Amino acid sequence: MANTVLIVLGMAGSGKTVFCHRLYSWLSEKNLRLNKDTGLNDAVFGANLDPASIATKMPLHYDIREHVSVADLMEQKRLGPNGAILTALNLFVAQIDTFVKQIEEAAPTYTVIDTPGQIEMFTTSVSGQILTKCLSGAPNTEVKLLYVLDGESAQNPQCFVSNMLFATSIFYRFKEPLLLIVNKSDIEGSQKIRAWTSDFSLFTDDLTTTDFITPTLRSMALWTEEFYSAFKLYYVSSLTSSGKTELLAVL
Length: 251
Hints:
About 45% of the residues lie in helices and about 15% in strands. The chain starts with a strand and ends with a helix. It has one domain (about 5-250): P-loop containing nucleotide triphosphate hydrolases (Rossmann fold, 3-Layer(aba) Sandwich). It has helices at about 15-30, 70-75, 80-95, 95-105, 120-125, 125-135, 155-175, 190-200, 200-205, 215-230, 245-250; strands at about 5-10, 45-50, 60-65, 110-115, 140-150, 180-185, 235. By secondary structure, it is α/β, with parallel strands linked by helices. Strand 5, helix 7 and strand 6 (about 180-185) form a beta-alpha-beta unit. The protein has 11 helices and 7 strands. Strands 3-2-4-1-5-6-7 form a 7-stranded parallel beta sheet, with helices on both faces.
């Protein structure tokens, strides 16, 4: 049975963790195979790889917090929060075979992986690449990266450019299929992002009205337009489930 691994990435505040929960629920509607011992749905494997997460939403087959403690690492190794998260991820990938085996034993149709809100801890570290390569190299497995944008903060042109630069970096670093998810699309004003991505002149008009506009920012905006114009953006709401059908159709 083929397994589609969905690695969900997003900046802090993007609603990534809630989106993971909703995505898990949406996928479970048509993919249900309850494990009588755990009570979990083995058709959709949920994994939390954010060691600093206080509370997770989706049902979990694997939780990195059960294997490593950020608080203990900070105390024992005298690390800061980010250093402890990075160390926790490195310790995790040192045992990556165990994680991959656990997924294979569950034989899911989908695997949903929530990653740290400190996105650079995963995207710029070796641990993120090791995880992705190990999963993509597993038999009958396809990896897709889901980059979640905050549909509220991304209404700021500078924030939108920043997100697109991050998404570009992720795409070329991991070299896996990438889906751009505009979350919180039910929030007033999110239609502005739709307009920007369909007509670049509208974006440049709004960009010129910002307080901080430089030739460099203009150049970056033009460069990122060449990137995101090659992708379809998926507008979803974790609150109302709008956009669910369109997203699930490509997963």
